[in-house]
Amino acid sequence: MGWWAVDVMPSAPATAGDALAAWLVARTGQAIEERDDGTLVTFAEDEAGAQELIQQLAGSPDPGATARVRPLDAVDWTLRWRDGLGPRRFGRLIVTPSWSDAGAEAGDVTVVIDPEMAFGTGEHGSTRAALTLLERHLVPGQSVLDLGSGSGILSIAAVRLGAARATGIEIDAEANVVAVRNAEQNGVSAACKFLDGDAALLAPLIGPVDLLLSNILRNVNVTLLPAIHDALAPGGVAIFSGMEEGEAPLFRPVLAPAGFAIMEEVLDAGWWAVSARRVP
């Protein structure tokens, strides 16, 4: 018997892909491949396991997703996913898998995240754009709030860059298990905390914070703007990501009425992020 691939097409790749990808990682324990057309590819040890995964899609965050299975050559796919993955640099911040030499120099800050652990590793353009702005705007000693924290990569990076504390809020409790493990791996457990729940309710209770990250879909970012404003200290900085380049003209106009002034914008592989200061 050999490994089988499961090709899963989200019903709406632009909006359902991230949640479905996280679900697939949690179900299989395998990394996924995201193709240009939105297809998510994961792996099973045998055909029975592949077919079982397809049946379980009905209970996934995207029950309308479609899937097919195909046999693979005799390759150790538990290791093959590492091919082509390596360190990524964001100013003085380096995000690297554990098996790779980060090539860090004096003054560099390293965060170790292994892609098989969870969706959200620095390999996606929206995460990279958020990391770029985080490295530029974080001031050591600040407090940080991370909405939709996923694998915990942004919270962990914030503390490694000098934040006094970072709190992640994630609606998916399974993702927080991974985030806690990642924080332990990077030696920042004491300063990184992860909460299960609704960001709209919890964010204002945790604030005021100096810097807030929201790497979520555009419509969710818009809905959360009042809570984000209330969670930030006057003059605090919010970093919004999770939006494609074409969504920028839709998101920019809502910031000023919500009490934010745009500071800087970043593009990465078609994904757009923006930093904005809370206007007192």
Describe the structure.
The strands form three sheets. The chain has a seven-stranded mixed beta sheet, with helices on both faces. It has a four-stranded antiparallel beta sheet with strand order 2-3-1-4. The chain has a three-stranded mixed beta sheet with strand order 5-6-7, with helices on one face. It is α/β, with parallel strands linked by helices. The longest helix has 16 residues, at 13-28. The model has no long low-confidence stretch (mean pLDDT 87). The chain is built from nine helices and 14 strands. The chain has two domains: 4-80, Alpha-Beta Plaits (2-Layer Sandwich), CATH 3.30.70; 119-278, Vaccinia Virus protein VP39 (Rossmann fold, 3-Layer(aba) Sandwich). Helix 7 (199-206) runs parallel beside helix 8 (218-231). The chain has helices spanning 13-28, 47-56, 77-80, 125-137, 153-160, 173-185, 199-206, 218-231, 248-255; strands at 4-9, 33-34, 40-44, 66-71, 88-90, 93-96, 109-112, 143-147, 165-170, 192-196, 209-215, 232-244, 260-268, 271-278.
